[in-house]
Every structure is written in structure tokens, then in C-alpha cells.
């Protein structure tokens, strides 16, 4: 049986979930992932970041070596995923950049009938799909999902879920997620994973997603705030 540091009986370990998330994130954004020496690197090239280095439950020596890479850099992040509580203690020249995001997971169920009034349109793009709500030809809510892993039993990775500020708390985010989850289930996925912002966590928790890991991102202390 798999060791499960996240403490969810019947689910694979955190490393497996993080690998699936990274692979699906890379599919969703069409970005390359490089793995070496216990770390994964994604060429983000947006939001002030050139590179994001990801490690899950790193041993102390790997964590220290990975964080030291940040000293003197301005465009690299290191994101550490941990299942348990963790008080990060970055070395000199490195600061905590983001510490309120989490990795969340959900056992997927078939889509509930959306009803004739649903305004969500799902567009397929190969192993990705985009769910969108339009009002007067403007996007009011949108989200992506990508499939990764064995075609018979893929993992679904949701990404870039967003509702226009003027349209929040009207159920659009939930409708977009329902459409993405339903599309993924219809394509064989029984497990879904995503990285959630604080606002996202409230939405996903309301939809039954649960926290699998804390995410802490670090950057060089001289980089942009
Ligand atoms: C997160 C986000 C997509 C939610 O979209 P939304 O259309 O407002 O979500 P919904 O109206 O479908 O919310 C459904 C339920 O989720 C929960 N929820 C959603 N947003 C919440 C918030 N900000 N605070 C508390 N609960 C929230 C509530 O239970 C809500 O039901 P209720 O309104 O009846 O109480 C939106 O806030 C957003 O775009 N934020 C900025 C981008 C972002 O962080 N995206 C997530 C990336 S992981």
C-alpha cells in the first residue's frame, strides 16, 4: 500500500499527487517541465517569474540546496509542498513570497445535469478543455482542465479558474468547475487536483475538494515584492 503523508486513506502519496499536478499544469499551460535531482522545474515566463522550481516533502539537505539557488536571483521561485504543518526558515538572501496557497484534490463524480438554463460552454482542445461563460460576448467566468497520466485512468488538473469581479458570488465559478469536473470524468478521470488561491479555496471547499498539501513559495530577497 502506498505511504500517504497527506493522511487520506485510499489515496496515493503526496509525491504522486504533486507529480500529477505538475504534469497537468504543464499540459494546461503548454509549458515544459524538467525533472532532475529530486526537483521539477517549469519555465513559467510570466508574472515576473522565469522559472518555478517545485519540491514535495524535500529532505533537509535538498531543501537547503534548492533554497540557496535563490540567493541573488530576481525571477526564480521555489515552491515547497508539505502535507504537515511547517514553519519555513529561509536562509539569508531568501524570503517567503506566498504562503497561503494549498494543493487540493477531489474524487470525481459524473456531471450533474446542468439544466437547459446553463450558460457554460465547454471547448475541447485535445487533452485540455476550457469552460467559459459569456455575457454579451464578454467572458464573465472561465476555467481550464487538463488530463495527464495513463489515458485509461488520467488525473484531471484544473487551472486558471476566474470569475469577473462584477459577477462573483452568483454561482458562475461553481458552474465552471462543475463543467470542468464533468468533462474530466467523462474522459476517464476519477481524481482531480489543483493549486488553490485563498479565494479559490473557499470555492473548491464548497464543492467538496479537500486540502492535500500546503504550498510555500520562496524567492530571492532582492526580487520584486
Ligand atoms: C475563486 C472565484 C473563481 C470564485 O468564483 P465565483 O463565481 O464567485 O464562485 P461562486 O459564486 O460559484 O461560489 C460558490 C460558492 O463558493 C464559496 N465561495 C466562493 N468565493 C468565495 C469567497 N470569496 N469567500 C467565501 N466563500 C466563497 C461560497 O460557498 C459560494 O457559495 P455562496 O455564494 O452561495 O456562499 C473568484 O473569486 C475569482 O475569480 N477569484 C480571483 C481568481 C482566483 O483566485 N481564482 C482561483 C484560482 S485557484
Short description:
The protein has 4 helices and 11 strands; from the N terminus they run αβββαββββββαβαβ. By secondary structure, the protein is α+β, with helices and mostly antiparallel strands. It folds into 2 domains: 97 residues, Trna Endonuclease, Chain: A, domain 1; 107 residues, Aminopeptidase.
Number of strands: 11
Strand order of the largest sheet: 1-2-3-4-11-5-10-9-8-7-6
Q: How does the helix and strand content classify structurally?
A: alpha+beta
Can you tell me the residue ranges where pLDDT is under 50 for at least 5 consecutive residues?
A: 1-11
Q: Tell me the helix content.
A: 10-25%
List the helices and strands and how they pair.
Layout: H1 14-29, E1 33-36, E2 39-46, E3 49-56, H2 60-68, E4 76-82, E5 94-107, E6 120-125, E7 128-135, E8 138-148, E9 155-163, H3 172-186, E10 191-196, H4 198-206, E11 210-220
Parallel strand pairs: 3-4, 9-10
Antiparallel strand pairs: 1-2, 2-3, 4-11, 5-10, 5-11, 6-7, 7-8, 8-9
The protein binds coenzyme A.
What does it look like?
- By secondary structure, this protein is of the alpha+beta class.
- The chain folds into two domains: 14-102 and 213-220, Trna Endonuclease, Chain: A, domain 1, CATH 3.40.1350; 106-212, Aminopeptidase.
- The protein is built from four helices and eleven strands; from the N terminus they run αβββαββββββαβαβ.
- The protein has helices spanning 14-29, 60-68, 172-186, 198-206; strands spanning 33-36, 39-46, 49-56, 76-82, 94-107, 120-125, 128-135, 138-148, 155-163, 191-196, 210-220.
- It has an eleven-stranded mixed β-sheet with strand order 1-2-3-4-11-5-10-9-8-7-6, sandwiched between helices.
- The longest helix is centred in the first third of the chain and has 16 residues, at 14-29.
- It is globular and about 55 Å long.
- Mean pLDDT is 92; it is low at 1-11.
- The protein binds coenzyme A.
- Residues 141, 161-163, 168-174, 196-197, 199-200, 202-203, 206 line the site of coenzyme A.
Amino acid at each position: 500500500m502506498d505511504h500517504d503523508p497527506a493522511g487520506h486513506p485510499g489515496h496515493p502519496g503526496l509525491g504522486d499527487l504533486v507529480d500529477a499536478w505538475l504534469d497537468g499544469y504543464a499540459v494546461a499551460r503548454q509549458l515544459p517541465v524538467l525533472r532532475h535531482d529530486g526537483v521539477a522545474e517549469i519555465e513559467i515566463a510570466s508574472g515576473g517569474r522565469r522559472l518555478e522550481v517545485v519540491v514535495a516533502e524535500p529532505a533537509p539537505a535538498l531543501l537547503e540546496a534548492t533554497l540557496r539557488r535563490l540567493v541573488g536571483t530576481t525571477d526564480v521561485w521555489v515552491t515547497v509542498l508539505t502535507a504537515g504543518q511547517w514553519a519555513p526558515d529561509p536562509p539569508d538572501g531568501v524570503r517567503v513570497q506566498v504562503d497561503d496557497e494549498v494543493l487540493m484534490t477531489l474524487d470525481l463524480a459524473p456531471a450533474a445535469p446542468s439544466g437547459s438554463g446553463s450558460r457554460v460552454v465547454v471547448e475541447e482542445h485535445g487533452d485540455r478543455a476550457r469552460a467559459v461563460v459569456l455575457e454579451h460576448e464578454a467572458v464573465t467566468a472561465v476555467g481550464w482542465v487538463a488530463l495527464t497520466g495513463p489515458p485509461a485512468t488520467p488525473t484531471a488538473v484544473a487551472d486558471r479558474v476566474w470569475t469577473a469581479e462584477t459577477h462573483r458570488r452568483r454561482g458562475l465559478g461553481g458552474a465552471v468547475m462543475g463543467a470542468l469536473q464533468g468533462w474530466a470524468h467523462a474522459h476517464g478521470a476519477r481524481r482531480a487536483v489543483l493549486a488553490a488561491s485563498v479565494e479559490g479555496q473557499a470555492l473548491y471547499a464548497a464543492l467538496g475538494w479537500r486540502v492535500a498539501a500546503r504550498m510555500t513559495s520562496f524567492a530571492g530577497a532582492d526580487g520584486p515584492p
